[in-house]
Every structure is written in structure tokens, then in C-alpha cells.
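Submission sheet (multi-component)
Chains listed below:
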Amino acid sequence: MSHWAAMLPLPTLSAVALGGAAGSLVRWGVLELATSGPDPLPGTTTPGMSLALLVINVLGSLLLGVLLARQDLMRQNQFLAMGAGFTGGLTTFSTFAVDVAEMLDSGRIAEAATNGLGTALGALVAAGLGYRLGVVSR
Amino acid sequence: MTVVALTAAMLAAAGVGTIVRYLIDLLLNNDFPVGTLAVNLLASTLLGLLVGADIGDSMSFIVGTGALGAMSTWSASANEAAIMARRGEGYLAIAYLALTVLSGVTFAWFGLQLGQAL
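Outcome: structure written.
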């Protein structure tokens, strides 16, 4: 990443943006399915949504691990579209952080701790596992 | 706004959010992923503000789900930590993720409080 000025051409930025939009669409679709039923109040989340978000973040971390192990087998823009783009847009930190902050705010300390630790450890293990899978599949 | 227009706006915002993350990562990520940490903290603070201020469904869909959702990431953070662990810096990996989660939740909490006060 040292020659970063070489990473800015329009096709690269388009690939990153399209991948990010696609990942975000999938994330939204999955979260919508997980919260089907009566709409929660704006800004509030349901237990089903927190769990679905955890699964999304873990699976996206696994996928990026696979991609990193196979990076040299792909064209650069293809790797960036799928990695920085798709897995980056699919997974999200901001909703996770606000969700946990709201749990703390309403005194659900155990739920907040479980969600925080579970997501961090799950994503880390998935990233390592994904990398192994990517290496094995070469 | 129709559902189609709303979805298109969300996707465009997600594209922009992804490019912002990509550029900040290129500029700031080093041996330590300062850029990823920065985008995650910024997006968490802003989403806290939006949710706290209750800006309405359309805006929270476009900016929250789209721009901030795509700008922040877990896949990069988890894999950056896994890379640290693979190069023998397991404690740094744990410290990085702990710092990310604890500061991210703290920033989101302050965003929520500030948003509610607005």
C-alpha cells in the first residue's frame, strides 16, 4: 500500500463503491428479514437484529480472510471490489457500537458484554479460519 | 420518496461511505490500522448522534444504513487483528480489538447523549 497514489484511478474507486453498495444491500436485506414483523421504534433494535448483525459481521470477516489468502490470484480491482468493497459494506461497526451503547444505556449489561465479546472473538476467529480456508483452497 | 428512489439513495450513500473508508485507510493505515479505527469511531459517533436526535426513517436509512454502515467495518478490523496474531503479536491483536470495541461503544454512547440533547 506504499504507492497509494496508484490506487486512486476511477475504475478502482468504482469497483470499491459498487462492492460496498452491494454489501450494504445484502446487509440491509438480512437485517430486514431478521426484524420482520412489527417495526421496532426508530433507533431501537431487537434481539433478533443484534444476533443477525453478529452473524453478518462474523461471516464478512471470514470472507475477507479467504480473499486475503487468495489476493495474489485475483486482479487488484477484483480483490478491492470484493474485499474493501463487498465485505466492508456487508459488515458494519457503527450499528454494532450504537446497539451495544443502547444496551448499556438501558441497563442490559450482560447482553452488552456478550454482544461485544461475542462479536470481537467471533470475527477474529472467523478471520483466522477464513485465511486458513483460503490458503488450503489455493 | 418512493421505495426505489430511497433504495437508490441508500446505495449511492453506501458507495460514498465505502470510498471514504478506502481513502482514509490508504492514508492512515500503517503497521497499526489507525485509519480503520478512525473510520469506525467517526461512524459510531455520527450514528449515535443520528439515532439520538431521531432524524426520521428516510434519513436514518440513507445516512445510517448506507453511508455510515458502509463506512464502518468489522471485516477489516478482525482481519487486521488476525494478521497481527499471525506475525506473532497476539497481545497487540487483542489490544487492538479491545480498543476498537471499547472506544467505539463509548463514542456511540456520547453520540447518543449529544443527539438526545439536541
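Remark: Residues 109-136 of chain A form the longest helix (28 residues).
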